[in-house]
Amino acid sequence: MAYTRGTSSNIIVGAAAMFVADTTLDPSSLASFGNTVSFKETLSEDADYTNIGYTMNGLELQFQPDFGEVQVDQVLDVAKLYKQGMQVNLATAFAEATLENLLLALAYNDNQLSGNASTSAGKVLNLSAGEIGECPVERGIVAVGPGTGDCEASDTVERVYTAYRALSIENVTVSAKRDEPSMFEVSFRLLPEDTSGSYGKIVDRTWTPAS
Asked: Does the pLDDT value for residue 135 go beyond 90?
């Protein structure tokens, strides 16, 4: 193969649309891809997924392996490394400061949000401290973003990020400031699902619009 400096279409720039599932996911429960439609449209029409809308600072997946060391007398450095742990985190910021998004950021149950904002009683998010032994709320996350840097193909090529089990574990700040938008910075800890031990998957796919 002849030398080339690189492939510009492999440089991917752009934000992803993020959806949160009502429950955890696994390979069999994930919505199916449609051959003639973007996966964003598929998830938008599925009542089990919530589109969180605008985000800020994009989507960041962080993989943190933990390695143990074996030291021997004859070598000043370690002679061997072995993997003894793994941690995966997903971070973003919800730019739409709705109570629905705050509920997701705080990992609350759906029943802690009630009412209607168009009534005098209003929509209410109950800020509960919880109880001892209460199970944390896990949800699945799916994000659909650009899959290529080729402008001609960018409308039909997408990259789908799926996290089967996600749990919000970091501090969440709610603010009302004169010179900054109200948004919720959230960090999700990803956990492997039971059957495959997989955190999720990343899929590059191409769909063809119906003629």
From this structure: no
